[in-house]
Amino acid sequence: MSALAIGLLIFVVTVAVLATGLPIAFGMGAVALFFMVVFDGWYSVNFLPETIFAGLSDFTLVSLPMFIIMGAAVASSRAGSDLYEALSRWLHRVPGSLVISNIGACALFSALTGSSPATCAAIGKMGIPEMRKRGYDADLATGAIAAGGTLGILIPPSITMILYGIASETSIGRLFLAGVIPGLLLTGLFMAWALFLSWKRGTVLVDHDRIYSLKEKLELLPRLLPFIVVIVGVVYALYGGIATPSEAAGVGAALCLLMVIVIYRVWKPMDLWLILRDGLRESGMLLMIIGASILFGYMMSSLQVTQSVAEAIGELQVNRWVVLAAINLLLLVAGCFLPPAAIILMTTPILMPVITAAGFDPIWFGVILTINMELGLITPPVGLNLFVINGITPDVRLPTILKGAFPFMMCMVLAILLLCVFPELATWLPEQLMG
């Protein structure tokens, strides 16, 4: 069999195995081991422990559990409701004010958690019932939170970008900076659509005549101060030359734990245990997926599949933008069935030679890939954010949530097009701050 035929067979078998519901780490590991034995014999099993542990020994991986603990700590407190309430008072008289407030809260919360499901759950639990109670349609209320939650993997710190940085051997610090302007752009597009749709539908708040005094608006601003302190602390440690990304993640985790203990009184041993338990559980899951993906990548490389695919794409006599469009389509389809971590770790080793050969910036492509992963989080049949929102509001049917999220998907597509036309949106900030 040719290497490309083997690659196609591996793709079909991998999709079939993962479609059974088997945990991703076990499914990818089993597929890798199976093809190694079939094509290289039992002797290849000897390389299994060394390959996995060599990949997991990367010091950069230390940042993963730290950022996960940041998210778990913030999600365990009233931080999300404080953000939401403060923003809603300032934007109360604007058309679509509550939707815009929720999207803004998602963006700020994302800067602390780096996790889309956590952002969806934390903001959605309070925001969706409040929006529906005050007169917003169910599709707009649920769709806005489902889409706003995806900002968690674009606005730094982003667990997705850490995985991409490890897989592509690019600077995680640069990736974080590259996500800032696109993250703000996407937040602005989401808010603009919410404002337009609320104005077009003539949505009138139940308490539209309520006027918050300046005192009422200002009294909640101190609650935003801890968030700003944590964000500034992490950014200063990372880009002030004080700490590496892994050390900055430790600073962020410590600041978030201190915030929830001192300000939100989450100090009971059982409460702290739950934070650490959730962080350990998610970290263990991610590290197992990373270990399995490293073995999977080794198998693909040893069978010459990675090299053959990159060579075949490179030999196509087409414009490089056609190649990029095909890659975007591949990522979008993959996102409908697999979580972001699995897609990034499986496809990055194959796509990186193609991207660099086409003359694209790997840092810029990291942002494009991340927005594609965002799309995957709100596209059926495995749109994780859709199911998180459905769990929060079981009386709202999944098609209604999807209907509300669809226009926000188009905003993401628009953001990808804008990044293709103006790549400086992603590359300017890293170049200015890091050279």
Report what the structure shows.
GO terms for molecular function: transmembrane transporter activity. The chain crosses the membrane at residues 60-79, 99-123, 144-166, 172-199, 220-242, 248-267, 279-301, 321-338, 405-429. It comes from Hydrogenophaga taeniospiralis CCUG 15921. This protein has 435 residues and is mainly alpha-helical. Helix content is 76%, strand content 0%. The protein is built from 22 helices and no strands. The protein has helices spanning 3-19, 24-40, 48-56, 63-75, 79-90, 97-113, 116-133, 138-149, 159-168, 172-178, 180-201, 214-218, 225-239, 245-262, 269-302, 305-314, 320-335, 340-357, 362-377, 384-392, 398-421, 424-434. The N and C termini lie far apart (47 Å).
List keywords for this structure.
76% helix; mainly alpha; 435 residues
Short description:
The protein is built from 22 helices and no strands.
Q: Compute the separation of the termini in Å.
A: 47 Å
Q: Low-confidence stretches at least 5 residues in length (pLDDT < 50)? A: none
The assigned structural class equals mainly alpha
Oligomer: single chain
What is the H/E order?
A: HHHHHHHHHHHHHHHHHHHHHH
Helix content: over 70%
Rg calc: 22 Å
Family: Belongs to the TRAP transporter large permease family.
Membrane topology: Multi-pass membrane protein
Subcellular location: Cell inner membrane
Subunit structure: The complex comprises the extracytoplasmic solute receptor protein and the two transmembrane proteins.
